[in-house]
Amino acid sequence: MDPGRTGKSMSKPRRPRAVTTESGSTTGRRRPIWTCPKCGARLISKNLWHSCGTFTIEDLFTGARPGVVELARAFVGLLQSLGDVQVLSQKTRLVCVARVRFAGLYPRKTGFRAAFALRRWLRHPRIVKTADYGPRWRGHFVDIRSERDLDDELRAWLQESHDTVGIQDDIV
Ligand SMILES: [Zn+2]
Q: Distance, CA 55 to ligand 1 centroid (Å)?
């Protein structure tokens, strides 16, 4: 009889092997980013579901007021200035990915809703909506209607989003 079964005879769960980057250095718990060969999307794991396909920013703003696509392009320029990011148009939204998705936009007829994730809650009159995906991904939304809305304040929020959530600063 073995009432005090310790579990020693049970097989241990397999531990993930240490990963090696292209440069040959180990990266601890960080997994290499996988790039979808079809659409070029950066994904945190191979064959992760994503809206795979080729959409353009114009597709997103079909039927929008004149000037909105240009406004969205200016936002994309802002996103690209944050660091090594990938900006992808998907079926219903545009996403911005560093190591992981951290920002993007949702089209509107008269502009768009800019989205970004922080580790903290930001309380500000410009935040029109929030989305709680846990302490590591707190979504914030700001309505953008003119170039004036793409200001230093928004830029600072986006940079914080990139520098924390986007590059996974909590994973060593
Ligand atoms: Zn794909």
A: 11
